[in-house]
């Protein structure tokens, strides 16, 4: 009997009832730990990004939105560190700030040398790269890397740029890779619209000294509408799968694959088992005893009226994203964007948007869950 069948037999009863399971009654999911939340400074804390460093420290990033929850609010790009697996967190560090325009879309990458790279945008018009060589305690001065995005201009005359959001990856050959999206805005005033849009990747083959553009993966078309916020993940053979948010009528997550992560992308396909309410989602690869799995998390509101951002659900593929037989509800309530991190011990952490302190709508807090992988392996 193969590995997949054994898993399905063991966990079948659990997953048949998972759609009604509460987030706190599962033995393999911890209680929420609040990492960021609205306070006297921030009206909303949105757009989570999360990585585990090579030393096991968790670094959580987000946009601290000032005055309102708007995408165009005044903002601080903020971060917190945890050295005890997310139980407690150091104070907020401000990495950059912007008045009159946004600073955000944090996209962190941890490389094999222990350096933490962070890509982000300002005013959806310029892109920057900063690094930490001391486990996230301090950060370099920002280096502008808009030049990498400008190389799209002859092919795609973007008016809006953004990396990620959420973590990028390092490939087996050392390449640093981040998903990006661009918009050739149909409307320029009072704010540049985020559509029509396309997705691609940018990459560095010299540990972040320089950045290059990849080929456009998907553009607005009859096949897929306005592809945007995406996330790369390594498959079992070392190739890259790009998980793509899109508002297409099918309401399904879109996938494309590439051996290099920068060119020769496959035709986009929709994952029938991954409902997408048009929301950013997180994906990560897991390995244990030579076994490989993909873990995907998003608000699965397929069976909820009007498909709100609700019912944060983890789904698992054991065949590189072809099928998704395992499922667990993490939070049946309000939930939006998320990011995933895996430490060297195989512990999995999810940082996600939800409402606390009786807040509603996009007045989000960011909370952390630790997910035991025993239900997967």
TrEMBL record:
Gene3D superfamilies tied to this protein: 2.120.10.10
GO molecular function, one term: exo-alpha-sialidase activity
Pfam family, any one: BNR_2
Span of domain Sialidase: 56-350
Enzyme type, top EC level: hydrolase
Signal peptide: 1-22
Highest taxon in the source lineage: Bacteria
Enzyme Commission number(s): 3.2.1.18
Chemical reaction(s) catalysed: Hydrolysis of alpha-(2->3)-, alpha-(2->6)-, alpha-(2->8)- glycosidic linkages of terminal sialic acid residues in oligosaccharides, glycoproteins, glycolipids, colominic acid and synthetic substrates
Transferase as UniProt keyword: no
Stretches assigned to coiled coil: none
Cross-referenced InterPro entries: Sialidase (IPR011040), Sialidase_fam (IPR026856), Sialidase_sf (IPR036278)
UniProt-listed GO biological process terms: ganglioside catabolic process; oligosaccharide catabolic process
GO CC term (a single one): cytoplasm
Signal in keyword set: yes
Entry keyword set: Hydrolase, Signal
Ranges annotated as spanning the membrane: none
Family: Belongs to the glycosyl hydrolase 33 family.
Full protein name: exo-alpha-sialidase
Gene source species: Haoranjiania flava
